[in-house]
């Protein structure tokens, strides 16, 4: 089963510990440092729309893009009460095409790692460059190779009264991919329904992603520790990038 197919309806409950507000606040801090005041944004791999909704609430006009129709369905339901909800589009990032340019592109929660072919990842970054307006900024985070390698052989458990999820990590040094099989049990009335999904993440290095950004045309590339304005330390689990599209001369 494809990633996020069965998981979509339970995703927010299983990730209740994720502080999306702090993530968006870090974006805003980067924007202030860069002197960037965007009016429009795209949330790439937006999932159930948690980041997209916060961006709307901050005053931006937002487009949300994701490959999972099931996740976008949940996102649309969550956005129904907003007066200016995001426009949601079902696309892969390596085929990204928007109806209009945007001032800001964000990609949260190591979503680029899910593009397990480096050529596709490079193409996705080129596509992001194309949809940004001149002077626009791209902000994203990834899991570090150290974190993904450490997941090898690990077993994790998430649960609440209606969802029980067990997942097991395996890192393949030859492919540079961390795979984790996810057994998901979801309550459906009086019965429990079992499903299985496999999630795969490529362990991109800081140097590799910096090269992709430069090849796409980005400038002013900066790399941060996990929501800290300092260089990543040895053993850092997550790092953030920001990069600018040059202003039109």
The main sheet comes to: 7 strands, mixed
- CATH architecture label name of the largest domain: 3-Layer(aba) Sandwich
**How many domains make up the 3D coordinates?**
2
CATH superfamily of the largest domain: Vaccinia Virus protein VP39
Please bin the fraction of helical residues.
25-40%
Query: N- to C-terminal separation?
Result: 48 Å
> Which runs of at least 5 residues are low in confidence (pLDDT < 50)?
none
The secondary-structure element order is: HHEHEHEEHEHEEEEHEE
According to CATH, the fold-level topology of the largest domain is Rossmann fold
Helices, by number, come to: 7
Instruction: Kindly report the spatial arrangement of strands forming the biggest sheet.
Output: 3-2-1-4-5-11-10
In short:
By secondary structure, this protein is of the alpha/beta class.
Structure notes:
This protein is of the alpha/beta class. The protein folds into two domains: 7-143 and 204-244, Vaccinia Virus protein VP39 (Rossmann fold), CATH 3.40.50; 147-201, Single Sheet (N-terminal domain of TfIIb), CATH 2.20.25.110. The chain contains seven helices and eleven strands. The protein has helices at 11-14, 20-34, 50-57, 69-78, 118-131, 145-150, 206-216; strands spanning 40-44, 61-66, 87-90, 102-107, 132-143, 155-159, 163-172, 177-188, 191-202, 219-224, 238-244. It has a seven-stranded mixed sheet with strand order 3-2-1-4-5-11-10, sandwiched between helices. It has a four-stranded antiparallel sheet with strand order 6-7-8-9. Helix 2 crosses helix 3 (50-57) and helix 5 crosses helix 7. The N and C termini lie far apart (48 Å). The relative contact order is 0.16. The model has no long low-confidence stretch (mean pLDDT 95).
């Amino acid at each position: 089963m494809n990633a996020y197919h069965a998981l979509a309806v339970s995703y927010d409950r299983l990730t209740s510990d994720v502080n999306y507000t702090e993530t968006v606040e870090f974006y805003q801090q980067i924007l202030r440092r860069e002197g960037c005041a965007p009016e429009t944004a795209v949330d790439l791999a937006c999932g159930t729309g948690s980041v997209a909704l916060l961006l709307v609430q901050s005053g931006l006009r937002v487009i949300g893009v994701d490959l999972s129709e099931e996740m976008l369905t949940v996102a649309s339901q969550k956005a129904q009460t907003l007066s200016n909800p995001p426009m949601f589009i079902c696309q892969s990032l390596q085929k990204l095409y928007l109806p209009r340019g945007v001032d800001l592109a964000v990609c949260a929660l190591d979503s680029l790692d899910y593009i397990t072919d480096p050529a596709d990842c490079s193409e996705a970054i080129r596509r992001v460059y194309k949809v940004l307006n001149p002077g626009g900024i791209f902000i994203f985070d990834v899991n570090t190779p150290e974190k993904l390698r450490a997941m090898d052989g690990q077993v994790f458990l998430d649960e609440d009264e209606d969802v029980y999820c067990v997942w097991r990590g395996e890192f393949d040094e030859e492919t540079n991919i961390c795979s984790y099989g996810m057994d998901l049990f979801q309550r459906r009335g009086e019965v429990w329904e079992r499903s299985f999904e496999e999630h795969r993440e490529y362990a991109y290095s800081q140097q590799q992603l910096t090269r992709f950004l430069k090849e796409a045309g980005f400038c002013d590339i900066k790399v941060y520790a996990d929501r800290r304005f300092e260089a990543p330390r040895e053993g850092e689990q997550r790092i953030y990038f920001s990069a600018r599209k040059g202003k039109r001369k």
